Structures are given as structure tokens and as C-alpha cells.
Amino acid sequence: MSDFCQDRDLLTMEPGIFLSGSFAGQNILAGEDGTIEGTTFSSASSDFQAASVEGGMVLCTYAATPSEGLAVEIVSVDSATELTVSVLRPDSQASPTPPPARSGLRFHIRTFKPQIRSISASLAEKLRSTAEVEGVQAARFADSTQLRLTTAHGVLAAVFVARAENAAESDANWIKAQHYRGEFARLQPQLRLALDADGDGTAEQTRALGNVTLRRV
């Protein structure tokens, strides 16, 4: 199924979850021989393709302390040892902006893809039910800022709930968990599903659940 947001969407709101240690995230690759030249990140010891690195994930580089490092978005995987990276862009269609050039970098790639997939699946089912069309698949839902934002809030709620386990109510992770849970609940009813049954680009039906479009494929 389609994921309704990417790690880069989480980076816009909470860069710390990528830089600092987090058992809620998955470290899929790490190394100590990273080099940034322009928008190219390379690591001779790595195999980004074998590690299933994807565009939209987040690369963290640092000299000594991960929490004091730099988190950049991965634009594309160009080979087993090279990525195109960028300082966080205003949107995923903008041209990549080079991070500062450096070599001998330690790095890790951390993803929250399992949480993204879970929240996306939950929202897809709600949207499918609202459409009242059997057999509608998540891949038919067109991308939108509202859908990405709602999904990202749901993912961050799950991440901070996990980080706040057994924590006091005054703990920052618990406060953030409550905030993102509240925003996720607030944003969902604002989603609006526009049904374009004949594929002519005009919605015949609009139902509250925005700017979420069901397109014919």
C-alpha cells in the first residue's frame, strides 16, 4: 500500500527523533566513512541498496556526538555507495540544496517506516469506508498536504508514546505524545475525500473525513 508521509515529513517537525537515540526508530545503516561533496553523500563501506534505503528517508551525520549532528533528507539512492542528499527542502519537488562539505563523517540512517505504514493503513481504511466503494486501494488516494500532515502527527504520537513509557506526566516525551495525539484527533475530521469516479478531474462527490482525492487508476 502507499505510505501517506515520509521520514522527511517527520524531520520538519521533530529532527531530534532522528539525531538522538530512539528505540522507536529503526537504524537501518551506520558507518564512519561518510563524505559530502555538493549534494552527493558517499560511503565506500556501505551498500545503500542492500539496506533498502529510499528517497524520503533521513541521513544523520556527525563528528562525535549524534545529537549534535546534522540531519538531511535523502533525495535519491544513486548507487550502492552514493546518495543524493539535501538540506531539508520546503517540499519534495524543490531542487536539492547542498549541505556543508565534509569528509570522515560518522553517520546513521534511521527510519520510522513501520509507524508510517501503520498510521497510513489506518487512515486508508477510514477513507475507503467513507468512499463507500468496495475494493478501493490506498494507492488510489492522491497525495495532499493535509493527508501528509495528519499522518505525520499520528506517527509522532506513536513515537512519543513509545518514548514516554513509564515516564512521569511532566516528562517532555509524554507532553509531546499528548500534543501529537490531540492534533491527530483534531486533523482527521478535517480531511475531505473528493471522489472522481470517471477520472475527468472533477469530483462528483465530496465527503468529510482536507483535499484528499480518490483518483481512478
Provide a compact summary of the structure.
This protein folds into 2 domains: 26-111; 114-214, no CATH class. The chain has 5 helices and 10 strands.
Strand proportion, as a percent range, falls in 25-35%
- Give the integer mean of the pLDDT values: 86
Q: How many domains, in number, for the residues?
A: 2
Low-confidence stretches: 210-217
In which range does the helix fraction lie?
25-40%
Order of helices and strands: HHEEEEEEHEHHEEE
Quantity of strands, as a count: 10
| Structural class by secondary-structure content | alpha+beta
DSSP helical segment count: 5
- Measured on Cα atoms, how large is the radius of gyration? 19 Å
Shape: globular
- Spatial strand order of the main sheet: 1-2-5-4-3-6
- Measured between the Cα atoms of the first and last residue, the distance is 14 Å
Main beta sheet, described? Answer: 6 strands, antiparallel, barrel
Report what the structure shows.
Strand 3 (58-62) and strand 4 (70-77) form a beta hairpin. The chain is 29% helix and 26% strand. The radius of gyration is 19 Å and the shape is globular. Helix 3 crosses helix 4 (145-163). The chain contains 5 helices and 10 strands, in the order ααββββββαβααβββ. It has 217 residues and is of the alpha+beta class.
